[in-house]
Amino acid sequence: MVMASLLRSSFVLLLFPCLLSVVATKQTYIVHMKHHLKPSSFVTHHDWYTANLQSVSSDSSSLLYSYNTAYHGFAASLDRDQAEALRQSDSVLGVYEESVYNLHTTRTPEFLGLNTDLGSWAGLGTQDLDQASQDVIIGVLDTGVWPESKSFDDSGMPQIPSRWRGQCESGVDFRPSLCNRKLIGARSFSKGYRMASGGRFMKEPKENESPRDQDGHGTHTASTAAGSHVANASLLGYASGTARGMATRARVATYKVCWSTGCFGSDILAGMDRAIADGVNVLSLSLGGGSAPYYRDTIAIGAFTAMEMGIFVSCSAGNSGPSRASLANVAPWITTVGAGTLDRDFPAFAELGNGKRFAGVSLYSGSGMGSKAVGLFYDKSNSSSVLCLPGSLEPERVRGKVVLCDRGVNARVEKGAVVRDAGGLGMLLANTAANGEELVADSHLIPAVAVGLKEGDMIRDYVGSDPNPTALLGFEGTVLNVRPSPVVAAFSSRGPNVVTPQILKPDLIGPGVNILAAWSEAVGPTGLAKDTRKTQFNIMSGTSMSCPHISGVAALLKAAHSDWSPTAIKSALMTTAYTQDNTQSPLRDAAGGDSSTPWAHGSGHVDPQKALSPGLVYDAIPEDYIAFLCSLDYGIDQVQAITKKPNITCSRRFNDPGELNYPSFSVLFGKTRVVRYTRELTNVGAAVSTYNVTVGGPRGVGVRVVPSKLVFRQVGEKLRYTATFVANKNSKNRVGSGPEFGWMVWSNEQHQVRSPVSYEWTQS
Length: 764
What we know:
Number of domains: 5
Number of strands: 39
Distance between the termini: 40 Å
CATH topology of the largest domain: Rossmann fold
Strand content: 25-35%
């Protein structure tokens, strides 16, 4: 969680990891222990961890967490000398400084085709798939939950599954009785945050140690994944209709790991550790880090254990787009989710004194500014003023006018508050090159319209050329069936994957722009302290919003195919994703308006209907991921840190990390211009099925697939093929020229199993 004023930043809930710097001499370290070396004299691993800690620290309060499932080790408050002393112990694999992560921050069920009976697609006959999902539990790691929301109503829900081992915590502002048969668990983890805050946790009245959501983000993501039907939902009249999550009958368990200054690695790991032990089937994390090696990535380590235990893990890709190589959460056992738009919009307009009218978007819900144009202010000579930073606007110059503000640096909604506080009547928010034509609507405190880069540049030119520029802002409510859609959001983080370039990321995109979902009544829709409005629903944008869409759809697939592994579910989501919008054109990129690429949209946009019956899947077992890790330049200790396996010798390893049985391809031409990968497909469709392959791609690359036909005789049968990618002889001239893309499809009359292929020419 980030502070309320940051929640509506220009890139909407950006995720940037950074190592903590604490004024105090102590800080939080995560200690990875050699789990198998516990002496028999210690009854539990916790006792052994405590003894190891006591060998370097006499402070009994130093131990923050003892991990049992997602990680083998503990988190402790240490100074540098104590941390170094632990590193010298033969029982310790590693000691790492804690990282802090921030959050990545309805029409969507209909847009995704979920308002239709899904039973026949899943092959369930008369059984209703949504009903079947009541045995699936989605664990959401976020800012907590607002349990009173109607989205967590449990009417008609049966008893909680007997395998559930979680609980509903008690807190200053949270009673266990607030949980029910829908919201079956709520916990909070704050020791890492408290340590980083110098122990001042309880002095902050809005940071009670409880699962209650004081921010809104966690309630929004949890209800998106599995919210119950709520009639007459809207944000102050916008996007009115029936709100519902992806899997309306699935259970929800929330784990509050994010606080006012971020989401701390030790708390995230504790939340994952508990969620796995509690018995969740799906883990949804709309947060994450940057490009750290997997053995230093808290979420990747916890997610590996989850994958081993059959838990599907969905994470947001990050909101650092359209910058290249800006992805978070790129481990291949995680489903990495980017963001796209819906076919719903909230049109608004700006009419200028020169008679020109420019289209934009807005969620402003007040009385408006009337029908008379007023002065338009923009001082391009003042870099702070053009961004509408706090304190940058002079009241005597902007009072009673519409202020043109450039997007960037501070939160979009904060800019509106700055204009209001300076006496401005309204705001025009204009994109810069970083955001292109992407339009994200906000519930501003004053009349405000957001416009794209082209419109913004024309408005800037008008202000600079007219001695008395004027503007009138107008608002047109909600419109549906917008074309083209979906469009890849400009803020959605992009590839390539810099941790393992041979794995194409993101995996796919889902709805993440202007998403209506439940909200915390502890905060107004802008998240600003001065916003006193209360609403049960809010409209937000970010990969934080797209991630729970995939989590909820994964819950439906788990209900339909209880025997599928997390990898099989991910494969079904990826190979059935679509790459054409509702105008039957290739997906477009909001950053520039051109066609999108797999570095932005991965395999494409999720299609729940087709994912339920993919025909074939690319499956993998934990040992395959271990072979993948052994193919990296990691030491045995580092591989053990991820896998928690003490006897790993890396006797099996891939020659190339790209040999992992992944549903997509990332081909790197370096020392060789020939790359050969073998893949294995599992038949999950009809007993007797024949598939033929087709390929497409750049002219400079030849692709040969052997065999070109796969004949399956029974369900569950596995067949292999080898794809050989050959760059032409002039490939050395391509180094640094940028990526190119292609595709491979295995198809029959019923199914198309599609894989994107990215090609990059590198030095080595």
